[in-house]
Amino acid sequence: MEKRIKIGLWLIVAFCAMALPVMAQNREVAAIDTSRLTYVVTGDVRDASTGRRLQYVNVRVSGKKFSTVTNADGGFTIKTNEKPQQLIVSHIGYRTQRVSLEEGSTGNVRVRLVPNTVVLEDVVVRRGDPQVILREAIRKIPANYTKDAELYKCFYREVAQKRKHYIYIAEAVTDMYKTPYRYGVGQDRVAIVKGRRLISPKPSDTLTVKVIGGPVQAVMLDAVKNRDFIFNEEELALYDIQMGDPVMINDRSQYTLTLTPQYHVNYALFFGTLYIDRETLAFTRIELSLDMRDRDNATRAILVNKPAGVRFRPREMSLLINYSYDGERSHLSYVRSLFRFNCDWKKRLFATSFTAVNEMVVTDRNDQDVKPFPRRDSFGDRESLYDQSHFFGESDFWKDYNIIKPTESLEDAVDKLKRR
What we know:
single chain; globular; 7 helices; 4-stranded antiparallel beta sheet; 12-stranded mixed beta sheet; 11% helix; mainly beta
């Protein structure tokens, strides 16, 4: 029962290549028009009481479908085609805040979120049967998620670090075609609109990491739609499912269910937390962490290939999958995966730590007269974004697109790598 291969969590540990330009052809696909994103809002989001920077907070323009998430520094940039009047900022465990944007107030917007208190009424949901709640949520997926095909505009980024310095960066704007949620992911597709990449040419950075499937991982990791992932009877039977403490997300009460592996099988399972909307029973947030207790199983779930003589030791693989609710339906909004591992040569005494992160945010959605783009324009699930991207060059490369704002450390890394 080797289901993990279907997920698309694949890494290749490879010898570094020099950062030479690769002029990959940009594909012409049916796309959301973003050519007039002339209004730009920048800001940061923090905890109102502690001042702590809040990561992966959802930020969207009120009355529009433009959205993004904050970066690891709590910062965000969002663009729109009309002068925005209000931002809606939401995060797990915090009150949703509507931020009015007055004339001239679109730069350095400071958002301070207040923790959301769960009232006594929410606490009684702990009496519910978690097995019943989960299976009812799965049964209601076709009703809770889009019933029509949609086209998403997305931003995707993957980075690799050796210890604490970046050795590989790749980014892309993509179009994602999504079929209705009564179907599986077999017909969902991703096409690269524009991409770029950069890799360290330092001789000491002898290894790098490629994420196979890259942007397609957001399709495969849509756990609500990809039933081969985890939400099927055969898979769920391997877990102990318990009720956790309720939380609020986007001012809506959520059931919290925890998953713990209870059997040893021939592939790696997950520890997980599921957040399910109490009213609609739609999945709002899914957090998963690969069980690392069996190193061989964990390695098979993550690694595709490595150079001969290199030992690969997995340390962590975690996933975050978010869905947004528009008042009628829920939609995939953000996917993030993180890999931590050590690599060493068999004849060396000390191992080197590596971290690889890839994330995708849906920045716009279109549900009108949507048609699939041809398969010949689709990004393959065995392709690497590195091989389909341009070299970093233009200073205003993402002028016409919404992206996840790079952290200060990532901006510094790009500048340093471009100078080498």
